[in-house]
Amino acid sequence: MCTKEQAEHIAKITRYGEGGRGYAGSTRAASYATKPMPKHLADSKASTTVVAQIEDPIGVENVEEIAKVEGIDALFIGQVDLAVAYGASSVADDVVTRRAFASSKRPRMPVSL
């Protein structure tokens, strides 16, 4: 993920609602149409987690804006792809983690490698 706009799009299409994904009541999560719609919608909202994968220098530049998007719950830093993109010799190269983590300042935003 590289931009705030991509993050907004992903956050929207991973959830039911206006402009988001359509309702699917015949799924396993909806107990194959036996769970009442309001219960399924509430359960889905409570249990959906969206992780933004940052694996490009453009994504690193925009990671603070990506992390602010409502519906983005965590960040995953694709350190191997970043190492290649930055021309680093390994994922242990300081430039990879320093740039990725330095720009992520949202309080309590889980970040993993």
From TrEMBL:
The keyword Transcription does not apply. GO terms for cellular component: cytoplasm. It holds the Pfam family HpcH_HpaI. SUPFAM superfamilies: Phosphoenolpyruvate/pyruvate domain. PANTHER family: 2-KETO-3-DEOXY-L-RHAMNONATE ALDOLASE, PHOSPHOENOLPYRUVATE CARBOXYLASE FAMILY PROTEIN. Belongs to the HpcH/HpaI aldolase family. This is 4-hydroxy-2-oxovalerate aldolase. It comes from Vibrio ishigakensis. The lineage of its organism: Bacteria, Pseudomonadati, Pseudomonadota, Gammaproteobacteria, Vibrionales.
